[in-house]
Amino acid sequence: MISFQSKLPKVNQSIFSVMSQMAATENALNLAQGFPEFNPPSALIEAVHSAMLNNKNQYAPMPGYLSFREQIALKERDLHQLSLNPETEITVVPGATVGLFVAIQTLVNLGDEVIIIEPAYDCYEPAITLAGGKTIRVSMDLNTFQIPWDELKSKVNSKTKLIIVNTPHNPLGTVFTHDDWQNLNNIVQQSNAFVISDEVYEHMVFDGNNHISVLNIEGLKDRSIKVSSFGKTYHCTGWKMGYLSANAEITAELRKVYQFLAFACNSAAQAGIESFMKIDNNWEVELSKFYEQKRNLFRSHLQGSIWKMLPCNGSYFQVLSFEGHTALNDMDYAVQLTKLSKIASIPISAFCNNREKTNLLRFCFAKNDDTIIQAANILCNL
Ligand code: PMP
Ligand code: GLN
User: Mind listing the pLDDT tens digit for each residue in 269-296?
Assistant: First the structure.
């Protein structure tokens, strides 16, 4: 046997795969892995089908069809007041996970430090490690869900190449305010750090609030990459479609990496999504209301139960505290709930390195209303 040195010795199967498999084996409701229970709109499915019938089956241009990127630029203008040049500032990629990998490989060199804020989405650190970087973690306060900006500032030094942020946040459902962006801006102005902003839940922001993108912030926009995902927005996580937005200089560099990672992504899905964007101009605006109602439904059915509901301002995740229910830690409790109560969730400690365990579980409410009610009833009857 040839000896083999793992590049990612600490990595195990992702918590999302673990809990989804357990939910299937145990025949439990799966509110664990984040994906919608419903299909994409039929007009979108028809548009992709029609693109396939109309010869959109061979390689698309490396950065994506230009007409598609033009459509994306229009959306970014109308919804986020961004002015992006579709030729030089938008790159279509096969999902946000690939987009994040490309962005991290583009920016991080051997020995660079990258700051991430935990709870943090699971794909950031392995990509940093593979680029030869060192991950520096700061922890959000799990009672207030506030980012410790002073601590983050104290971690920035001459080796800091990159800071990764995520708004709306998975798993906590927090949404960056203007003050959050200004805090970040003040910190990076005194450094050489770039910013990657993971904005895959950008069209799920509740209670009349608006999503603010990193590219809206003067001072940040020329040192940042925004990561977007069509999977979240159009209920098609299985299609793995997304895009990166950044200024022309950064985009030219990230396209060099992307060219040799995937070269191009699904042509029929690109053409189909482009057509759908033209057909339904209001989809993204309606999406926030759609998920806000689902959040409200879930919360209203949990009212008066033993679960403490933490705030959820965006994303499709609701975090619940089980403090006082059990002496079990979050992982063991998530397993017990899946096996005995037939409801699967994600323990928040899975997003953390700095914390052994928490008393918080994440539930995905991108589900049909009857599933949401069934899930809440299970939780209320514990
Ligand atoms: N970032 C965050 C915060 C996510 O939650 C996800 C997936 N749900 C991704 C990135 C990856 O998105 P995609 O499925 O488009 O790769
Ligand atoms: N982003 C999804 C979640 O947070 C999971 C995606 C995956 O399984 N990689 O649940």
Answer: 999 999 999 998 899 999 999 999 999 9
pLDDT of 205 above 80: yes
Listed in order, the ranges of the chain carrying CATH 3.90.1150.10 are: 15-40+283-380
Closest ligand to the CA of 17: 2
| Distance from residue 283's CA to the centre of ligand 2 (Å) | 22
**pLDDT category, 367, cuts 50, 70, 90?**
very high
Work out which ligand 2 atom sits closest to the CA atom of 364.
10
Q: Which ranges in the chain are annotated with CATH 3.40.640.10? A: 44-279
Fold of 15-40+283-380: Aspartate Aminotransferase, domain 1 (3.90.1150)
Q: Is 233 in the pocket of ligand 1 (CB under 6 A)?
A: no
- Tens of pLDDT along 59-91? 999 999 999 999 999 999 999 999 999 999 999
Which atom, in ligand 1's list, is nearest to the CA of 231? 15
- Calculate how far, in angstroms, residue 375's C-alpha sits from the geometric centre of ligand 2: 19
Task: Please name the residue whose Cα sits nearest to atom 4 of ligand 2.
Answer: 34
Label residues 81-102 b or e (16+ Cβ within 10 Å = b).
ebebebebbbbbbbbbbbbbbb
Which fold, 44-279?
Aspartate Aminotransferase; domain 2 (3.40.640)
The per-residue DSSP string of 370-381 comes to HHHHHHHHHHHT
Ligand 1 pocket check for 113: Cβ under 6 Å: no
